[in-house]
Design a protein that fits this description.
Aspartate Aminotransferase, domain 2, 4-stranded antiparallel β-sheet, 14% strand, globular, binds pyridoxal-5'-phosphate, EC 2.6.1.-, transferase, aminotransferase
Length: 398
Amino acid sequence: MKTTTTLHIPMSSPDLTNLEREAVAQVLRTPHLSMGDQIEAFEAAFCRYLGVKHAIGVNSGTAALHLCVLAAGVEAGDWVLTTPFSFVASTNVILYAGAIPVFVDVDPQTGNLDLQQAMQAVHDLTTGGKAAQRWLPRRGQGQHRGQLKAILAVDVFGQPADWDALRELADQYHLKLIEDSCEALGAEYKGRKAGVLGDYGTFGFYPNKQITTGEGGMIVTDDDAAAAFMRALRNQGRAPGDTWLQHTYLGYNYRLDELSAALGLAQMQRLEELLRRREQVAAWYNQRLKVLDGVEIPYIAPTTTRMSWFVYVIRLAAGIDRGQVAARLAEFGVPVRPYFLPIHLQPYMQERFGYRRGDYPVTEDLGERGLALPFSGVMSEEQVDYVCHALQMVLKSL
Ligand SMILES: *Cc1c(COP(=O)(O)O)cnc(C)c1O
């Protein structure tokens, strides 16, 4: 371990080889840059991997989620139950549909939707009146009483939510279940793969994800009608049989281009290797940090039969000044990131719905103590050593 030199370690890096470079170059030797055989092959690879009937490639994970919300029948003024401890996209797509995100707090260990609270909220929102009121935002609900249509849960940091319990709840109240598995490609819940645990699942392929296409996303579902609808919406609302200038629905341009699809297909061929490398890096971190005072390493629930490491987020003990830790780590060339800043406290959410600090205390506590360390499948053991050593010195010096 060198202490005299400063290593410059990126927050995250894609894991790319000549296989990916050649796959993209090959597309450029053809005239087919959109809606060709690469996206079909990329979608087929997802169907095979997940054992699911339909996979629909789109140009971001956010676009994938947006189409799922529309396929779930969510309309203006409806309510969708979701989590404030996530990347903002999972809430924003509800707003895009003109609906109202209704938050419930999260489990303090996993950071995933708190089941007891979700059950109570669904019951109360269905009952209406005063019981429903306590779950709704202070303002910005519109004039009409909403109707609960769906639950949108997130597999946070690559760890599946409790999907069997969510399924039971959704069935009991006739709700659609949307799985934001954008952080969880390869994860398993009780031996079943993340992404196919709700009615519709989504993946995202930004460069920090388990596989990347630059920008891109994927929807997966077994629902034939919903799949046909989402395929049409992805392509400017063109239903099967429509010509290029016929549009059955109000659609979007959410198409994934062929270069990105070729990159994604090559990454899918290496998926197991990519997941294993991330597991190895997480294991190096765990080994070094589990003995460090003031640091909590990631918790893995018994229902998580395989964690898919998207990020490596530690929790600092209460009372440790996270800002100061981050500033001191930066001096060592170690970038870190607070993870996540709660969605309900983002300025536009506070302004529109009147949220305040204290509304979702577990989310806020995790948000205040969570620190993502540099993480990717291409990190070396020496780099992990360097980060852990720097963290140890910083914590000691406080
Ligand atoms: C990455 C991610 C998305 C999708 O993000 P895009 O940048 O639109 O691909 C959605 N939800 C969560 C929780 C994510 O981490």
